[in-house]
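Marked as duplicate of an earlier ticket. Keeping the data here for the record.
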Amino acid sequence: MTIADISYTEIDSLTRTYPLVILEFWAHWCETSQRFAGEYENIAEQNRDVIFVRAEIGDEQELAERFEIDSVPTLIGFQNSIQIFKHFGAPSQVHFNNLLDQLRSTDVDELFRRELGLEPQGLKGLFKKLRR
């Protein structure tokens, strides 16, 4: 499977269009990135419910700055355009599978509730409070 290169102007549209996306930041000069490339493609092949893309930090400096990338490889997982994880380094197969499980199983609504300090009724409860 070929992993698509992504640009600064495409990432938001991609994460809004597809429910599960993993973005790898890599560098052509980085041996770890080069070694990890084949593993990344194999994992992508085995997990077709997830969109796998990559960005070379030299070519996509603005994108790397946006996500505060200071080492490669770095993986960022998105669910419904919400960043679920950011992992530095090349994960083992087991760890990558754990990251995929985390990506698939995270309840984004629950994340929002926790971030906003809401009760279980979530955003509906917030809107009711705001209308009062």
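See parent ticket for discussion. The CA atoms of residues 40 and 85 lie 16 Å apart.
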